[in-house]
Amino acid sequence: MTGSSARKENALATRLYALLKEDIYSFRLLPGDRFTESGMAEVHGVSRTPLRDALYRLEREGYLQVSFRSGWAVCPFDFQRFEQLYDLRIVLELAAIQRICESPESISLDVFSDIWLVPAEHRLDDGIQVAALDEAFHQGLVQATGNREMARVHQEVTEKIRIIRHLDFTSSDRIQATYAEHAEILRMLLQRKQAQAAILLKSHIDASKAEVRKITLHRLHEARERQTATGWLVNPNEPGERK
């Protein structure tokens, strides 16, 4: 394979990875759904090589599992695992708050203030944009400590919970709550009120965790009902079969 061909294959694998991940995020591929490489390759009109690269990448990230006899399957939701990841996230972010408040030098939080300490009329209402800003806010708190290992672990946790965390921004009420809660956390940090900031942060993450669990269960129920109503079933031999 020439260098040009390899680059095209890699680019195609990356595109397929993004498409399949979005299908999982959007519950078009549901937990437990099964498919084969050949069937999925036919659906997307691609060869199996770049598709396989994309599938194994999703397997490494915990979204898919593969079996020699039954092909590929979307991993079931493990809410206990997600709860543990949220708990780890809280530990890391509380440690970040402590370091920010106890730092002998003032750590600038201006970039966050410009986003979250704004009048209500200047707030964004697009869930995708706010979700990205929310991630940046929480990651930024950890990065502000200067501890690269803490930031690396926090980044890994963020990526693992993203599949459900983005659901917290599908309603205007939750978007407004995020703005209000981030603003209060920032105000406490700017005053170096560690205890108050820590209480607010933990409450903020706990509320988000409870909300995304509720929304995830509701979305899964709706998706299953749609799948049953349309007769669209996924089996080990074909990507989708009308029954």
Task: Supply the key terms.
three-stranded antiparallel sheet, two-stranded antiparallel ribbon, 243 residues, Arc Repressor Mutant, subunit A, 9 helices, disordered C terminus, Four Helix Bundle (Hemerythrin (Met), subunit A)
Q: Approximately how much beta-strand content do the residues carry?
A: 5-15%
Secondary-structure class:
mainly alpha
Strand order of the largest sheet: 1-3-2
The level 1 CATH classification of the largest domain is: Mainly Alpha
CATH level 3 topology of the largest domain: Four Helix Bundle (Hemerythrin (Met), subunit A)
Calculate the mean pLDDT score and round it: 90
Report, as a whole number of angstroms, the end-to-end distance. Answer: 41 Å
Question: Biggest sheet, in brief?
Answer: 3 strands, antiparallel
CATH architecture annotation name of the largest domain: Up-down Bundle
**Structurally, how many domains make up the residues?**
2
Radius of gyration: 21 Å
What count of helical segments does DSSP give? 9
Q: What level of helicity do the residues show?
A: 55-70%
The stretches of 5 or more residues where confidence is low (pLDDT under 50) are: 239-243
Per CATH, the superfamily of the largest domain is GntR ligand-binding domain-like
Query: Total strand count, please?
Result: 5
Helix/strand order, N-terminal first: HEHHEEHHHHHHEE
What's the overall geometry?
A: globular
